[in-house]
Specification:
By secondary structure, this protein is of the alpha/beta class. The protein is built from 19 helices and nine strands. The strands form three sheets. It has a five-stranded parallel β-sheet, sandwiched between helices.
Length: 466
């Protein structure tokens, strides 16, 4: 039996289950620590009243840790081994954070043994709940069945993305030929070559949407058939828009000027209030970050100085807003004069030029802390495309379409491309990251900025840099 739940609905169901089980685990941990005869269990809610701060803190930290640990993504949970490892790592980190908090705030402590019991019970219940959910409920969730109209690279890309992005609950069930001479190479799904009675064919496939992969090369007969489908309640979507929704990036090699011209505005360019909000946000975050991070940055500076010869800080010219050049600051992670013989080259994974301390700084991304100064003085924003070197930009503008659009906003310390794709070390990586940068330009909002901040924490904890 198929369950008619959307992508958000199944995640809400999983979240509700987690919320109930975490509360049960905290209660059970206290029960095992003090016993049912304790004065703390005179009534059912007594332990929560006595340990209000401890139980509430434990509850909120644990629930937040589950999100930070990406345990609401299907790709993590469909593999039992991956899910169990991620769950144990996430709950262990959250337990250590709670232990440190209780140490510094003893008035709100939950006794050490109760905390250990809670950790064990929480892990057991949540692992069992996810094994049940993804083997019984998730496999029976109703998928949004759709048909692809057209053939070619965009159709292939959308079909592949739908198969890979299991969270979306879309399912491609067929391909529609839009003109007589169109070749259909895909063989893994049925092909409709005759558009007569297309609405009936779509409904027989239990599909409720058609994603059209081209706006040209559609025969009059096929166009009429698509109109009939729309009139009869079948949703017609642009395949590129659907791909952007599912993949959360712009298919840069499959769009043209008209797609940008008639698509969403670039929010930071068109909305003056959003720009002002962004600047206030940048100043607040950079000031707080510089103050709170000062002790850590002093320790990093000492480590860099003792590890290798050369300056503590590394400065380099980067391309900023409207392609203006500015000086970017980072903690030095490479040997002195690393590019003296090679000139400007991409940094690579396991680069021999990186120092011992530098390798740790790059993996933890702590080398980028001095860029808070760039954010404060207005050269950068906290969130935006990753800043690139002028030497690379000149080349990338020649080979990557619409690359100039990323300079409509300030470069960022973190950004949508950084949290979705990570470090880039080639032209191919630059192309892929631009697709996420353009998505951010079109969809930028306060909510998306908050999501990027949270995902930045995820990235630092679970997907270290190069």
């Amino acid at each position: 039996m198929r369950l008619g739940l959307s992508i958000r609905s199944w995640k809400y169901l999983l979240l509700i289950g987690d919320a109930i089980l975490v509360a049960i685990a905290i209660y059970a941990g206290l029960l095992l620590r003090f016993g049912p005869e304790s004065i703390y269990f005179v009534r059912v809610w007594t332990p929560f009243k006595v340990f209000t701060g401890a139980t509430l803190g434990s509850y909120l930290v644990t629930m937040f840790a589950l999100w930070i640990g990406e345990l609401y993504h299907a790709y993590i949970n469909v593999s039992a081994g991956r899910m169990i490892v991620r769950m144990l790592l996430t709950l262990t980190i959250s337990s250590l954070i709670l232990s440190a908090g209780f140490y510094w705030l003893p008035h709100y402590r939950m006794y050490r043994l109760a905390n250990i019991y809670t950790l064990i019970i929480t892990a057991t219940l949540l692992i069992a709940w996810r094994l049940l959910f993804f083997r019984v409920f998730f496999v029976n969730l109703s998928r949004r069945r759709l048909m692809l109209a057209g053939s070619g690279p965009m159709t292939d890309l959308l079909a592949r993305t739908i198969r890979e992005k299991v969270d979306t609950l879309y399912e491609a069930v067929g391909i529609i030929r839009l003109h007589e001479g169109q070749e259909i190479k895909e063989a893994d799904m049925p092909v409709i070559t005759d558009t007569d009675n297309l609405p009936d064919a779509v409904k027989r496939a239990n599909a409720s949407m058609i994603a059209v992969a081209t706006r040209t090369n559609i025969s009059d007969k096929a166009m009429k058939a698509l109109w009939e489908c729309k009139i009869k309640g079948i949703e017609i979507r642009d395949a590129m828009d659907l791909y952007k929704e599912i993949a959360e990036c712009v298919p840069i090699l499959h769009v043209d000027e008209s797609w940008f011209l008639f698509g969403p505005d670039f929010t930071l360019v068109s909305n003056i209030w959003m720009r002002r909000f962004q600047r206030v946000f940048d100043i607040a975050v950079s000031v707080i970050g510089l103050i709170l991070g000062a002790p850590l940055m002093i320790l990093i500076a000492l480590a860099v100085r003792l590890d290798s010869e050369g300056p503590v800080l590394f400065s380099q010219e980067r391309v900023g807003l409207n392609e203006q050049i500015y000086t970017l600051y980072k903690f030095r992670t490479m040997k002195k004069d690393a590019e003296k013989e090679t000139g400007a080259v991409w940094a690579t994974r396991n680069d021999s030029r990186v120092t011992r301390v530098g390798r740790f700084l790059r993996r933890s991304r702590l080398d980028e802390l001095p860029q808070l100064w760039n954010v404060l003085i207005g050269d950068m924003s906290f969130i935006g495309p990753r800043p690139e070197r002028e030497e690379f930009v000149k080349d990338l503008k020649k080979t990557i379409p619409y690359y100039f659009l990323r300079f409509l906003v300030k470069p960022g310390l973190t950004g949508w491309a950084q949290v979705k794709y990570g470090y880039g070390s080639s032209k191919e990586d630059a192309l892929k990251k631009l697709q996420y940068d353009l998505y951010y330009l079109q969809e930028m909002s306060v909510g998306l900025n908050l999501l990027i901040l949270l995902k930045t924490i995820q990235t630092v904890l679970f997907r270290p840099g190069s």
